[in-house]
TrEMBL record:
Keywords, alphabetical: Membrane, Transmembrane, Transmembrane helix
Pfam families, per the entry: MFS_1
Protein name: MFS family permease
PROSITE patterns assigned: MFS, SUGAR_TRANSPORT_2
Chain segments annotated as transmembrane: 87-105, 111-133, 145-164, 176-194, 229-253, 265-281, 293-311, 317-336, 357-378, 384-404
């Protein structure tokens, strides 16, 4: 028979090791936030540099998200096969490489290639880190622990916004976006150094007999098929809503609302502040009222306040800034429970693979959301296209979460 390594629960494990795992995973998600949110901020400069349409800009975003879906599935499977930490180190190194190469793009085709390959390794980060941290966290605290880890995304987003503000203050937008991607290599190197200290992770052995079905076949066998299919549909509709907001809001503020770089950055700062708070508090609510009700509250909140954010006149400055804060809060609060949910749906032997499939295949389907909005914006306007996609996706998301089982407090094997 063959064996695969997984990390055990935090009970009985050296707490200094748990802290190192926590901060190593936190830095990885921070890197994800930094690099992923750079592209929407840089999109205006990229479009100006290569003379692209909004449809081509949406295509570049969608290609990276589709490749991240592939990366997530493969990364999750490799983590189940070879261990979590080893795969994470490989992912971070490749991530840094292709982030740097994106800055060297000389035409749209090169940009598409490097950004797609960057997305491949970006996708592998999430299921591997989620599986590692979920297995260390106590069941009754898993929602808030993984939400805290995901709060690093907001810190990374803040770093991307700062890079956007400073680079555009000193350089024309056709050069500033390249500097932003070069700076994206630096946090990747820091994360890589931290991860290298986690070689001595304690492991338990998951036994798989020679004649047992493989991991992917098991996910679609009768015992887990419902979790896999519904989890993937939930991931797809939920992420499509998130991408509709996060990908196009910077360009919407700049083009439709006519804001300057500094004014756009100010709105993003308020959204980031709400984003961080949403991650932290959202995890507590997931542990208190359960996954279903928490997701319901947060997705409805995103839709309602997202619509208000688009509808309030620009001259109502403080109302707009407050709404940016609230929208950021609900966007991240809805994401805060996904790490817990997708790992709680599957047993240890396929946990990384299951989380990779549900989250990242969902991400691949959701990747068409930015491209569709970019196409639809030509006829209906960017703001209306964003709101329409968010509303449709919210209805589907709530349907799928109530068809899934409640996993609050589930003890992981």
């Amino acid at each position: 028979m063959t064996t695969t390594s997984t990390a055990p629960s935090s009970a009985g494990v050296d707490r200094s090791l748990v802290r190192r795992v926590t901060w190593a995973t936190w830095t990885g998600w921070g890197l994800d936030g930094f690099t992923n949110q750079m592209f929407p901020l840089a999109l205006g400069g990229i479009i100006a540099t290569f003379g692209l349409t909004t449809g081509q800009g949406g295509l570049a975003t969608s290609c990276a998200l589709i490749s991240s879906a592939v990366g997530g599935v493969v990364g999750g499977r490799l983590a189940d096969r070879f261990g979590r930490v080893q795969v994470l180190v490989l992912v971070i190194g490749a991530y840094a490489l292709f982030t740097g190469l994106t800055a060297t793009s000389q035409n749209f085709e090169q940009l598409l290639l490097w950004h797609t390959l960057e997305g491949l390794f970006f996708g592998a980060e999430w299921p591997v880190g989620a599986a590692l941290m979920a297995e260390y966290a106590a069941p009754e605290r898993r929602g808030r622990v993984l939400a805290w880890i995901q709060s690093a995304w907001s810190v990374g987003w803040a770093g991307a916004n700062l890079a956007y503000l400073l680079s555009n203050a000193w350089l024309p937008e056709t050069a500033a976006w390249r500097v932003m991607f070069v700076t994206g290599v630096l946090p990747a190197l820091v994360a890589l150094l931290i991860r290298r200290k986690l070689r001595d992770v304690p492991t338990t052995q998951v036994q798989r007999k020679p004649r047992e079905q493989g991991a992917f076949a098991e996910l679609f066998a009768p015992g887990l098929r419902k979790h896999t299919v519904l989890g993937t549909l939930f991931g797809a509709s939920g992420l499509a809503s998130t991408y509709a907001m996060q990908t196009w809001i910077p360009l919407y503020l700049k083009e439709d609302r006519g804001l300057s770089v500094s004014d756009t950055a100010m709105y993003i700062w308020f959204m980031i502040a709400g984003n961080w708070l949403g991650y932290v508090l959202g995890g507590h609510l997931h542990d208190r009222i359960g996954r279903r009700w928490a997701f319901t509250v947060f997705y409805l909140g995103t839709t309602v306040f997202g619509f208000l954010f688009m509808a309030v006149p620009l001259d109502a400055l403080w109302y707009n800034l407050l709404l940016a804060f609230v929208v950021g809060f609900f966007i991240s609060a809805q994401a805060s429970g996904k790490g817990a949910l997708f790992t709680e749906l599957f047993p240890a032997r396929v946990r990384g693979t299951g989380a990779g499939v549900t989250y990242n295949v969902g991400r691949g389907v959701a990747a068409f959301s930015p491209a569709f909005i970019g196409w639809a914006a030509a006829g209906s306007g960017l703001g209306r296209a964003i709101v329409t996609v968010v509303m449709i996706c919210t209805v589907l998301t709530l349907l799928f979460i109530w068809l899934l089982p409640e996993t609050k407090g589930r003890v992981l094997d």
